[in-house]
Write a structure and sequence with these properties.
Strand order of the largest sheet: 1-2-3-4-5-6-7-8
Structural class: alpha+beta
Number of strands: 16
Oligomer: single chain
Strand content: 25-35%
Distance between the termini: 43 Å
Number of helices: 6
Helix content: 10-25%
């Protein structure tokens, strides 16, 4: 085990000791420690350096956020296990459960994806890839009417006018042959909106393993899309998890300063490590918690107060 990993594990132990403080990850640190790879013994082969770094950074950043924001945001107010569902979360849940938009998985093409988005004209468009190096088809028209989507698969030699029935909870699309597509199977994936770019969108989906790929579009014109690679911390911590987005447009590389203590070391640990050493990193916190006053349900929140909301 390297010295840096030992230091990080020491930081974890120190950060996880309180039982009432809630970190940036949005859950009691003691609970997070039990659920995450950080709770493993230092000799555990499963506690990979990447998971340790990402998880420690998330927890440490949460402590820094809590300390730096003392204006009434008490630990109790941030405790996800207390209080009613927040107004913001309730609104997000209602909108999400009424939406068919998202990243769908097809069991017949496990390496592929289907992205369905409303086109603002009463219908939708789809981006479809079967994976395995095959072609990606974009801007495919999709009909939408009364809980039913109409697909034309003629572009890949398939049938036309195929009806897909949406489940009541909008989580599945079932076809006449019995095949069923599942929306946002990986929990964090989906179509997000950034309020700073009302005409744009962000599509987050799994790439491979813990790696992600995000389509960043500020205008709504597909020609303006930029694709950003990223990764996430262990999903064991879901309903919250830390996400990294590398070389995100407009994000400058922060100047690295010498760590002055265990906390500052943990905060810097995940920045530009390994294969991403020369890249900028934009760190966000994904949340599926509905009682969290800081991180509402279905959002990715960033330190600069940018909040993406899944639709």
């Amino acid at each position: 085990m390297t010295m840096s990993t030992k230091l990080l594990l020491t930081a974890c132990a120190a950060l996880a000791a309180p039982t009432e403080v809630v970190g940036f990850a949005g859950s009691p640190l003691a609970t997070a420690a039990k659920a995450s790879p950080l709770a493993m013994s230092p000799s555990s082969p499963e506690a990979s350096r990447r998971d340790v770094l990402a998880s420690v950074s998330s927890v440490a950043f949460g402590l820094a956020t809590l300390v730096a924001s003392p204006d009434g945001a008490s630990a109790k107010a941030l405790d996800l296990r207390m209080g009613p569902v927040t107004e913001a979360s309730a609104a997000n849940i209602k909108a999400y459960e009424a939406s068919y938009q998202g990243v769908y998985s097809d069991p017949n093409h496990p390496e592929g994806y289907r992205i369905i988005m409303a086109n603002g004209k009463g219908g939708a468009t789809m981006t479809l890839s079967d994976g395995n190096g095959g072609e990606t088809y974009k801007n495919i028209p999709v009909g939408v009417k009364d809980g039913e989507l109409s697909f034309d698969f003629g572009f890949k030699g398939g049938p036309k006018g195929v009806a897909g029935i949406l489940s009541d909870d909008r989580k599945f699309i079932t076809f006449p042959d019995g095949n069923t597509w599942t929306k946002n199977k990986d929990e964090y994936d989906g179509v997000y909106k950034d309020p700073k770019y009302p005409n744009g969108y962000r599509i987050v989906r799994k790439f491979k393993g813990t790696k992600t790929i995000t389509e960043v579009n500020d205008t709504g014109n597909p020609k303006d899309s930029v694709f950003v690679m990223g990764d996430h911390a262990s999903l064991v911590s879901i309903p919250t998890a830390g996400f990294n987005f590398y070389n995100f447009p407009g994000i400058e590389k922060a100047e690295k300063k010498k760590a002055t203590n265990v906390l500052s070391y943990a905060l810097q640990a995940g920045d530009g490590m390994g294969e991403h050493a020369d890249e900028t990193v934009y760190v966000g916190q994904f949340s599926l918690q509905d009682k969290n006053t800081a991180f509402p349900f279905g959002t990715i929140t960033f330190p600069d107060k940018t909040v993406w909301t899944r639709i």
